[in-house]
Amino acid sequence: MAAIFQGVGAAAALPSSPSYSFDSNKSVFSPRRSFSVRKGASFAVVRSDGTVNLNPKDRRAQLLISNAVATKADSAAASSSSKPGHELLLFEALLEGLEEEMERDPHVCVMGEDVGHYGGSYKVTKGLAKKFGDLRVLDTPIAENSFTGMGIGAAMTGLRPVVEGMNMGFLLLAFNQISNNCGMLHYTSGGQFTIPIVIRGPGGVGRQLGAEHSQRLESYFQSIPGIQMVACSTPYNAKGLMKAAIRSENPVILFEHVLLYNLKERIPDEDYICNLEEAEMVRPGEHVTILTYSRMRYHVMQAAKTLVNKGYDPEVIDIRSLKPFDLFTIGNSVKKTHRVLIVEECMRTGGIGASLTAAITENFNDYLDAPIMCLSSQDVPTPYAGTLEEVTVVQPAQIVTAVEQLCQ
Amino acid sequence: MPTLLSAWFNSHQPNLHPPSFYSLSLFRSSHPPPSPNPTLAMALSRFASSSRSGSLLKPLSSAISLRRPISTDTTPITLETSVPFTAHQCEAPSRTVQTSANELLTFFRDMALMRRMEIAADSLYKAKLIRGFCHLYDGQEAVAVGMEAALTKKDCIITAYRDHCTFMARGGTLLEVFAELMGRQAGCSRGKGGSMHFYKKDSNFYGGHGIVGAQVPLGCGLAFAQKYSKDEAVTFALYGDGAANQGQLFEALNISALWDLPAILVCENNHYGMGTAEWRAAKSPAYYKRGDYAPGLKVDGMDVLAVKQACTFAKEHALKNGPIILEMDTYRYHGHSMSDPGSTYRTRDEITGVRQERDPIERIRKLILSHDLATEKELKDIEKEVRKEVDDAIAQAKENPVPESSELFTNVYAKGLGVESFGADRKEVRATLP
Question: What angle (nearest 5°) sits at the alpha carbon of residue B118, between those of residues B113 and B121?
Fold first, then answer.
């Protein structure tokens, strides 16, 4: 199914440049569903009705209103009538998935700060409180430890709560509940209780949000036995993973990214889910396997364009499932290309990349022609200054250099 | 005579021995007409019990059976709790409680069983058959037994790590307890949980938690689920005086009060948070008042009837008005756990003093004897029986096998993703997960 992606902005590689230029030429019409040219740097999206969606938490972005309104609106109108499915933004995809599951199963409820009447700080739960009532969409006080615990307690009886951390970093306050109770109760009770909870929230480095609000918790949670972790990156897999996570009997942590909420994509009308343990083949290739997830997928794809121009053929896999790794897909890819580059946003020490490197080396060492390269964020608290923040995360230029080095 | 016998059979289920002896008692009003005068009923029962030991019947007793069935009478007996309840922001329930001989004897038996079980666990720990942490509940049995008497199996109970007796009260068996403590397959958590992780899903016992205070938000979550599913049941979330200083407790209480959840927070105040006395840990040791906007009740936790009364009151209250805090003033004879002698932060005199004056089993024993509901010998027989039960269970648990190696990987995930699982060296211990 073809998908049309609106180019959401350019100039990701330009540091400290506040101006965005929307170039309609950059929107790519591709027969392959998941091929996307997405910069991922800007998240100011102008919708076809003229309203501007900005990250409500980032007041700076409000100064950076995009200018190319007309072009966008035209292409949007042209595309929506001819193709099957419907177009929406990533947060709407999450909302749709959540809403469908809540309709389907009365045991599903949502808990979090400002998820009810306010509609969710990223609008993922907008309208749900009006539709389902206060008992199913619960506004909690600012008490992550206890409301995560309450969600887990409710899950023990068979309810299916979806607990939202307003920012993933706040869930550190609930680490004990997530680690000891959420992850371990199924085991320590000898199988008596299942914990079908979904813990979700946005994380990742945003737009100068500061150190405490730019955390990547996948590295901290990855050792917890008994939980599953998935990271969504497109509206299609966001909705699919949300639905699958809610239906799963295991506790699932769904990592969203602050900067990806306004990605637009066309998704199918019919009911679908994405497999929680499966990785997504974004771009098949021959020369090198690039493993990535969440926002870095877009940096990789941007680098892929450059690489293709330079004559390389990278295979890009969005691993999606951070725990457990989809070693089947990854392994097949390694066996084909013999070179692996991991591009991730979490920090180098003890990150997902570190675990993935270990897993690949253990299992597929014989198939590797070169040592695995891992590009991660720097082991620093995310600085506020824009220039420094740019350098903290992996940029497409670095990815290109790494591939060239790997393929020598 | 046959009529009396059949009437007796129909109204009582003797749990020990055939009632043949009772059928001969002309005066035993085991099935008296409903008497509006409780004094008369009590007088009748007293008369009957004294006639039991009368000379008329002694030779027959030796002929028929050496063990006499004890009272399974359910005529109400009215008693008073040891001390009145102290209330915060609510009306305290009355001191007067209704009980019956049957109930008192059940209490005695249950508490004696729990006491015996904990002492046996102590010996097993010292024999290194139980390892790790073992937190014993002896001294606090009245809380578990009294609470259970006020609840149904639809109500949920969740507690911390001192959970052996609460598990038993919820319907657990001795074999499950000892097997789990010794890490065997027949344990309630298949040997994978240990002392601090006893659970019994079918009787709504949610454990069994090692991290202090973490079970209280879970308990409020259970109450939320009960409200969500309109169960008309309540959740009792137990915690200790040490855990009462955890922030998540107040968070959970706040949310429960906001959402009107049927949650009852029970502080089992045994006055010591491991080695720290309550006055050293809490600025305000009036734990029942700590709810501030939530009502609270202070209960003598060594008096099983008071506990039962308080829990009944709390259940009614919570179903209508939201959360309530109960503070059970109780005491543990053992140290915090088996690695704590329990004497470095309190005097032996204190421990023996409590044992002499407030012991829950002794209190019930005195009640039973003073109301002539059973003889001393009968009570001793119960204790002997209980001891034998415990010994049998231990023997059975010792025979039980340890879990298979493949059990290491089961129950990590529900429906373990259909994968195979290997041991650390990837060669041994394969388990194909469902």
Answer: 125
From the list A143, A177, A187, the residue facing B411 with the nearest CB is: A187
CB contact under 8 A, B255 and A152: no
Cβ proximity of B168 and B156 under 8 Å: no
Residue in the structure block whose two tokens are 């055939």 = B18
**Cα–Cα distance measured from residue A106 to residue B230, given in angstroms and rounded to the nearest whole number:** 13
Query: 3-state class of A4 per DSSP?
Result: strand
Task: Quote ipTM for the complex.
Answer: 0.75
Question: Residue A47 phi/psi, 5° resolution?
Answer: -90, 170
What type of residue is A186?
Answer: H
CB contact under 8 A, B228 and A109: yes
Residues 6+ apart with CB under 8 A from A384: A208, A210, A211
Q: Half-sphere exposure of residue A310, counting CA atoms within 13 Å on the CB side?
A: 15
DSSP β-ladder status, B156-158 and B235-240: parallel
Bridge partner residues of A254 (DSSP): A200, A230
Nearest to B70 by CA among B117, B108, B26: B108
Helices A296-309, A396-406: axis angle to 10 degrees equals 60
The active-site residue, picked from A99, A101, A113, A144, is A144
Measured CA to CA, the distance from residue B280 to residue B221 in angstroms comes to 31
Phi, psi dihedrals of residue A112, rounded to the nearest 5°: 170, 180
**Farthest-apart Cα atoms in chain A, separation:** 60
CA-to-CA separations, B424 to A93, A219, B147, B427, B428, in angstroms, rounded = 40, 22, 45, 8, 8
* Phi and psi at residue B140, to the nearest 5°: -100, 10
- The span from the CA of B109 to the CA of B87, in Å, is 31
Q: How far are the Cα atoms of A115, A124, A147, B55, B229 from residue A134, in angstroms, in the given order? A: 10, 16, 15, 71, 14
| Alpha-carbon gap, residue B335 to B341, rounded angstroms | 5
User: Tens digit of pLDDT per residue, chain B (434 long)?
Assistant: 444 444 444 444 444 344 333 333 333 334 444 444 444 444 444 444 444 444 444 444 444 444 445 667 788 888 998 899 999 999 999 999 999 999 999 999 999 999 999 999 999 999 999 999 999 999 999 999 999 999 999 999 999 999 999 999 999 999 999 999 999 999 999 999 999 999 999 999 998 999 999 999 999 999 999 999 999 999 999 999 999 999 999 999 999 999 999 999 999 999 999 889 999 999 999 999 999 999 999 999 999 999 999 999 999 999 999 999 999 999 999 999 998 888 899 999 999 999 999 999 999 999 999 999 899 999 999 999 999 999 999 999 999 999 988 888 888 888 766 666 666 666 666 666 65
Structure tokens at A193: 């209780």
The partner residues of A316 in beta bridges, in order of sequence, read A283, A290
Phi-psi region of B385 (alpha: psi -120 to 50; beta: other; left: phi over 0): alpha
Q: Is A287 a catalytic residue?
A: no
Asked if B403 and B191 count as a contact pair (C-beta separation under 8 A), the reply is yes
Instruction: Report the candidate in B123, B193, B108, B151 with the shortest Cα–Cα distance to residue B379.
Output: B108
Element (H, E) at A322: strand A321-323
Rounded to 5°, the CA angle B183-B184-B188 comes to 85
Q: Which residue of B has its CA nearest to A184?
A: B412
Rounded CA gap, A86 and A82, in Å? 10
Q: Which residue has the tokens 């990533």?
A: A90
User: In what helix (H) or strand (E) does residue A315 lie, and over which residues does it extend?
Assistant: strand A314-318
In Å, how far from its chain's centre is CA B30?
A: 28
Q: Is A213 a catalytic residue?
A: yes
Q: Structure tokens of B233?
A: 């049941």
Interface test with B, best of A144, A186, A189 (most B CBs within 10 A): A189
Q: Which residue of A has its CA nearest to B418?
A: A277
Look up residue A365 and give its two tokens: 């060492």
**Residue A236 contacts residue A93 (beta carbons within 8 Å):** yes
